[in-house]
Amino acid sequence: MDTDGAGAEDGPTLVMAMPRRELWTVRGLVRQVELDVLESLEYESWFATREAIAEDVETKEVRIGLVLHRADQVLVHEDGVILHACAVPPEVENLAPGLRGLREFARLAARRLVGAEEQDLRLLGYLNEDRLEEASGFLFLVYTVYVASDCPAPPQTS
Question: What is the pTM of this model?
Answer without folding.
Answer: 0.86
